[in-house]
């Protein structure tokens, strides 16, 4: 073998060895590693997609829960009967009149599939409709003020219903509206009303509105077991179907002036509000007569009728609710600006009784300051009970409550 060939042999052997080692490293190390990374990235992508689907499903579940709380009873016959009774009471309350041709009629039920198509179902469980609409037609006469009041109460009712169409026409001569002294503009009203039964909802079988049947039964059992009654109904109270629902409280806080609809009558134009003129003085020997239009709560001590009814946790922190049982009025309390200060007036809103400032909201109690004194109102207590027992100064200091000018309770 020549000298040159003998020098090339080690080089060739080294190249073959490097090739073999590279092949082994790629085949058994690098290729599996890259394949694993690709599979891992694919799995992570699928996990992210599933997480998005879970969030969407949770949002849809929350929407369905809300719809079920507002749904009519699952029993279709009971739902139609109870809702028609609700409409009858509503139109009677607001002094609607049917006249000769007026009526309130049930137009039947329409099951709707999940695809949104109306169809007739054979009653099989696997063919249950997504929801069923109950249709009613109202043809009546009323004053424009009474119609406005009815629409306001209809919107605030915790039910899954709507007015699909409404036609309003002027009718006849003006008449007394709702027992008020001013005359209401008469109109003829035609409405198509639609109420919904959510498919598969078993929360209430025959009751039109209120807590779920299960909650009512559990509340009765806790009461029989000598536990505090009503605690299990708190979630319903602050839920979509309760009296303390956020949507309902937002409407109360808006304080919309619906009387403008009557004053800005689209049929006759804007009408200036009449100024109240004092009655003439009584003649000799004639005693002045008392007004018969005084509200029923006149003369009541509003501090006695404002009670702490709920303390809830929200994303923005704890909040509490005062409720006036005499005026059906709510006050929202928080430690943040906008809800920190509250004022309680007398029954006719002429004199300030309490100018409070919320200091702290604890479990079961709200601490507030008024005139340098600190008070604690507990759940179920009235403001009058709270201000009769101020918090001692040393306890205020121990709790770390900040008061600009703390006055001892004895002063």
Structural account:
- The protein is an alpha+beta fold and 411 residues long.
- Among the domains are: 148 residues, Alpha-Beta Plaits (2-Layer Sandwich), CATH 3.30.70.60; 98 residues, no CATH class.
- It is 35% helix and 25% strand.
- It has a 4-stranded antiparallel β-sheet.
- Strand 14 and strand 15 form a beta hairpin.
- The longest helix has 68 residues.
- The chain is extended.
Short descriptors:
411 residues, alpha+beta, 4-stranded antiparallel beta sheet, 10 helices, 25% strand
Give the tally of β-strands: 15
**CATH architecture verdict of the domain at 76-209 and 240-253:** 2-Layer Sandwich
Query: Quaternary status of these chains?
Result: single chain
3D shape: extended
- What order do the strands of the largest sheet run in, or round the barrel if closed? 1-2-6-3
| Helical run tally | 10
CATH superfamily label of the domain at 76-209 and 240-253: Ribosomal protein S6/Translation elongation factor EF1B
Give the % helix. 25-40%
- Distance between the ends: 122 Å
Mean pLDDT level: 79
Q: Low-confidence spans: pLDDT under 50, at least 5 residues?
A: 120-124, 174-182
How is the CATH topology of the domain at 76-209 and 240-253 named?
Alpha-Beta Plaits
Class from secondary-structure proportions? alpha+beta
- Beta fraction of the residues? 25-35%
Query: Largest sheet at a glance?
Result: 4 strands, antiparallel
Any idea what the radius of gyration is? 35 Å
Tell me the series of helices and strands, N- to C-terminal.
Answer: HHEEHEEEEHHHHEEHEEEEEEEHH
- Class of the domain at 76-209 and 240-253 in CATH? Alpha Beta
